[in-house]
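Example record

One chain of 590 residues, shown exactly as stored in the release files.
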Amino acid sequence: MLDEQTNCVAEIVTRYDNDPLRLMDIARAVHAQLGHISESTIGQIAKALGIERIKVRDMVSFYAFFSRQPQGKTVIRLCHAVVERMKGADAVAEAFEKALDIAFGETTADGLITLEYTACIGLSGQAPGALINNIPFTNLTPKDVPQIVEAIRKGADLTTLPQAEVDLGLRQPGPVIFAPMERGAAIRKALNMTPEEVINEMNKARLRGRGGAGFPTAMKWDFCRKAEGEKHYVVCNADEGEPGTFKDRVVLTEQADLIFEGMTVAGYAIGAEEGLVYLRAEYEFLYKHLEQVLAKRRHLGLLGENACGREGFNFDIRIQMGAGAYICGEESALIESLEGKRGAPRDRPPFPVQCGYKNQPTSVNNVETLCCAARIMVEGGEWFSKIGTVDSTGTKLLSISGDCEHPGVYEVEYGITIQKLFDMVGANGTQAIQIGGPSGICLAPKDFGRKISFEDLPTGGSIIIFGEERDLLECMRQFMDFFVEESCGWCTPCRVGTTLMEQYFKKILDGKGSQEDLAELEKLGVTVKTMSRCGLGQTAANPILTTLRNFPDLYDARIKSDTFVPPFDLKLAQQAGCVAANRQAAVEEN
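Predicted structure tokens for this chain:
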């Protein structure tokens, strides 16, 4: 067995040129072949790469899709994000436990099936969803479970099951992302300009990054182009891990050419020869499709040496798979992961445009931004600037899920109101709307006239709708569970602060909170928000802080006392010990 592992590791490491920067690919390949990465395997990888064992262990232990213990031949990962639980994921979970006679986190006695929970997998518009050996399953019900388990035990082709079908979910295409475009048109137009003129076109369009922060794309490209370095890099952030977000999945499926077109334009503008797509592990089922699109583009001369017929313009693209970590959506954590490390955010400055991938100038843009850049090259910056609002030009892709009749992806012009969104997706009797996923803000009906735009409600694209029947605060508690789980643990305000917030919040939801607890909860939230190192911690308190502001009555209804209430029954906690010792409890009833 040890010889088999050694040979496996040696072959895989050689396949990746003994390059420590490809540790992510090496670990993924080893895990796929051996079913897990043991401590001995970690040592073998470290020795083969000539690096310290702790570096391999540190990386492997960070990602959710790497297991240190043997798993079943089939791994069922059921999504238990908020929308999925709203749509019945808990009942599906019970059905899996009953059918397999194991709990989540366990493997069947025959070693065939492992059952796990996972965070959002980009299928909230057709929830509940699961990944079974990385094959997506959608719209699951408890009645589906016996058929799925039987197929697994029989070794059937899981892709033939009716539940293994992903609806594209594109409900409303628009003129920017989903309009048709000739392959190579954007690159040819860019190559007829100087790189500075290409950047200026982005400036005319007033294109801002679609990840939510809205940094001007022209400025980012200009900074990167002017930064000194041996090489420059373009990185496409395709790690949409925000619960309730699935727009990039649709774009990657339908408009991969447009993404790669935008990356190539960016490469020309900043002087890069290499582009990298960081694709989240949950979208592994799209990898083959994306590689086929890239191969087609190389065949047509749109990638590679002298791309698009331009002498000296050598630009190609590589896809880097992730391994399951929400924090890797943050650009510096993403770069760390690209380099085969744990996805911990970097201190800034320096910024990625100065010192990014391989410590070289790097422009990190998300999927949607790169699509916009390609469209701008064809239609012109002035054309783009006339869509949307003055400060928010163009269109925005929204992933809409939750309590509505028509969940899915909508391409809308910036400036659309929340109420118009409701009319569009068939949402009636809405209690609240979560703009930007858990890291965004929760709005009450008084704010439904507000607009999706950088000047009012900026968002990366996740929109979750809560009907009147939902326990809104329980949904917020689940958001907090998510942040506690996904914190990288580097800084104390986030690592400790989110845990303390969760404890106070649970106490209040259990009816044991006081006004003092509410005040302490808000104080903690502000501390976490203002003192955390990266964007995760800086937004982790938003579910609580925004509902405290917009739904104070829901909190007041949970408060049973104005004075301190213990979070647990001390006498009850002592009871078992007192019985065993034949002693009376030290705490008496008042």
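Notes: The radius of gyration is 25 Å.
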